[in-house]
Amino acid sequence: MxxxxxNEARNLEVxxxxxxxxxxxxxxxxxxxxxxxxxxxxxxRRVLPGVRIVRxxxxxxxxAMACGFAAATGDAIVMFDADGSADPQEIPRxxxxxxxxADFAKGSRFTKGGGSDDITLLRKGGNAGLNLIANTLxxxxxxxxxxxxxxxxxxxxxxxxLPAVDMPPHPDGGMYWGDGFEIETVLxxxxxxxxxxxxxxxSVEKERMFGETNLRTxxxxxxVLRTLAAERRRAGRDDRPAVSGTAVPGPAAVxxxxxxxxxxxxxxxxxxxxxxxxxAVPAAQPQRPAPRPxxxxxxxxxxxxxxxxxxxxxxxxRSSRPRRRSPASSAPSAxxxxxxxxxxxxxxxxxxxxxxxxxxxxxxxxxVPHRPTPPExxxxxxxTSEEE
Length: 388
Hints:
Elements: E1 2-5, H1 9-20, E2 30-33, H2 40-47, E3 52-55, H3 61-71, E4 76-79, H4 91-99, E5 104-108, E6 115-116, H5 121-138, E7 150-153, H6 157-160, H7 183-193, E8 198-202, E9 204-205, H8 217-239, E10 383-384
Parallel strand pairs: 1-2, 2-3, 5-8, 6-9, 8-10
Antiparallel strand pairs: 4-7, 5-7
Helix pairs in contact: 1-2, 5-8, 7-8
């Protein structure tokens, strides 16, 4: 679980113990700090001794999330805000959606079972308009584009092409495209453009507990619009067919709106090192049971299911199980006692038949199953919600 922070000490005193109480237990909690001045890091270590602390390398929420993604060791990654607006008891629901076959579990306040104690009428109307634009541009069925409570399998990270965490700060003092608050919209657009399967998970947003929100209704709404336009142009370049006798170009660099400089292209041979945490305390958690077999037989295009979650862990380590590949023909673990049922039913969202790159195994004798190319016509760009 990745928790970006900047001066969130008072909130972490409540949030982190609540995370520790989640069952099945969260495998690891990574707090990514952005130069807090209120003792955020010290508070995190005091209230949750097993927490991992990572210092973000530049400024902006997007860079904080990217540093956390690079440092994560689990197969499943959950994005979690530190202000107390997200409910930790919903984490098992997100993980269950992934185990059922989704590549990306998208939290939604506006699907059946979701809600918000914090959103205003103006922001709700703006979000509905942005949903319509995003769904038109990307062929999705998002009900809540601007919500940051999400989860995904770690092996889709190469498809997201986020700015490298080891790049120096921008020379003009600005931010690279993807380093700022546009990160959530960028992720939603790139997941859809990559043809990954998306399941919406109902979530209830609470009010921020302490401190002031950084949301600015009109400025952030404009930023999301610009992000949608830039990401649509990027996806359009990726989808262009090759001309006879010419090679198909690789993914094009994002053309960001003005005032958001593009990330310089990295040398093809230069690997991107992960962010280095200043403290790492390995979590010792009991193993979760495998999910119960589903009554229906797997479809012809499905491979054997990915291993299910092991008792007591909401995010198993990469070194402890084979890499997850194709949508599973297995049922999820039991839902949280406090939330609605876990998502069930078909998961759609494939687009263009693209295949995710394989991550090499990290353990001795670890098998890496191949995931098949999704058949043509499988609900391109569609999003499955719990209502279906």
